[in-house]
Amino acid sequence: PSPPTPEGHREWLVQTLADPSYLLMIASMEGSPVGMLRLDRKVHGDRVNIAVDSRYHRCGIGAAMLALAAKLRSGRVLDAEILPGNAASRALFAGAGYRQIGERLFRREPA
Question: Is pTM, for the whole model, over 0.85?
């Protein structure tokens, strides 16, 4: 709901990097970070979280990160929470094979 404090974000990052149930990756172009992919392992699948720097929207970075998530978690259910008003994210995930199963929940079944 609100941005974390620098200290709060640092604590979250340290905990996330130390927890083997999380996989956190930074997407880069020409050595500069342009996005983030996080996979949170759950009992029945993985939760997918992505973010792309707004300067790089519509460059294929989000689609590439979702393809990587599907490859890394082949054979597992992938879930994503997308806010109702986020038409761009809904289209991106739908294009990657996710289908809406709840107001905010989108799921990609294993191939």
Answer: yes
pLDDT digits (tens, 9 = 90+) for 67-107: 999 999 999 999 999 999 999 999 999 999 999 999 999 99
Q: Smallest Cα–Cα separation from 75: which of 98, 45, 97, 101? A: 45
Which residues are paired to 89 by β-bridges? none
CA distance 79 to 83: 13
Residue 67 is encoded by which pair of tokens? 């393809």
Degrees, nearest 5: CA angle 9-12-13 = 85
Amino acid letter at 77? V
Dihedrals φ, ψ of 76, to 5°? Answer: -115, 150
